Each structure stands twice: as structure tokens, then as C-alpha cells.
Amino acid sequence: MYQILSWIVRYLLIALVYYFIYSIIRLIYLDIKAINEKEARGPRTPYLKLVNRKERLDFEIDELYDLHEETTIGRGKENEIQIVDQFISTRHVRIALDEGQYFLEDLGSVNGTYLNGEKLQDVAKLKDGDRIGLGQVEFLFVKEEEEEED
């Protein structure tokens, strides 16, 4: 009896190790895939990158969202970025381009918008690497600076 139990435990541990290795390889693959998608989009286009792990969310969401002159995010279909999260308002937040800079504005959402962990009280200027939190989702604002040529 002890020998059978010992064999079962061995095989379970081996399976667990293989599953762990599979998970690591899958994460590496997803990161490489996201990098390749970004390179295919072309450089210098500001975008939002999902910080959360997609599989932990109970709704569909993309890894990357390109930003336009004005981009609204919310649950409603009229938004450029629609996120069907119960904690996000119908029109939650706006990201607008003004004089070459992007600005973040909460549109009176119930649960608020967070910029780098602090609740957004007024319009805020975005810079590369800022974290935007709304509902269960957190995005990284990426704006690659143009290289100046001499």
C-alpha cells in the first residue's frame, strides 16, 4: 500500500513540475508575442498596455490599445475602448491629445480613476510609464519619445 501511494505522489510531483515549466514557457511566449505585435504597429505611436494578466479577468480585453487625438474608455459601445467591467462606468475616462501632450480626465465615474495609485481629482498630464487604473483593469501609458536628429 505504501509503495502505491509513493508512486502516486511521485507522478503527481512530476506532473506539477511539468505544469510549472509549461506556465513559464507560456508567459515567455505571450511576452514575445506582445513585443512582436508592438513592433508590427510601428514606433512612436502612443498606446495603452494592459498590466493585468488577461486570464485572471472575467471579460474580454486586448493587450494593447492605440491612442488617438481623443480616446474614451468605458462600458458603453460609443467609447473607442469598450471594457465590459462591472466597475467601469458607461463613459469612464477620456485621454486627449493637446499641443503634443496627452491628458487624462475622469468623466464623473462612480468608482474613480487612478493615476499611479492616486485617485484622479482633476485633468492630469500623462508621461511615459504612468499607470492608469480603472475598475479591475490597470494600463501602462507608453509614449516613445522621438529621437532628435542632428
Automatic annotation (TrEMBL):
<feature type="transmembrane region" description="Helical">
    <location>
        <begin position="7"/>
        <end position="29"/>
    </location>
</feature>
<keyword id="KW-0472">Membrane</keyword>
<keyword id="KW-0812">Transmembrane</keyword>
<dbReference type="InterPro" id="IPR008984">
    <property type="entry name" value="SMAD_FHA_dom_sf"/>
</dbReference>
<dbReference type="InterPro" id="IPR050923">
    <property type="entry name" value="Cell_Proc_Reg/RNA_Proc"/>
</dbReference>
<dbReference type="InterPro" id="IPR000253">
    <property type="entry name" value="FHA_dom"/>
</dbReference>
<dbReference type="Pfam" id="PF00498">
    <property type="entry name" value="FHA"/>
</dbReference>
<feature type="domain" description="FHA">
    <location>
        <begin position="71"/>
        <end position="120"/>
    </location>
</feature>
<keyword id="KW-1133">Transmembrane helix</keyword>
<protein>
    <submittedName>
        <fullName>FHA domain containing protein</fullName>
    </submittedName>
</protein>
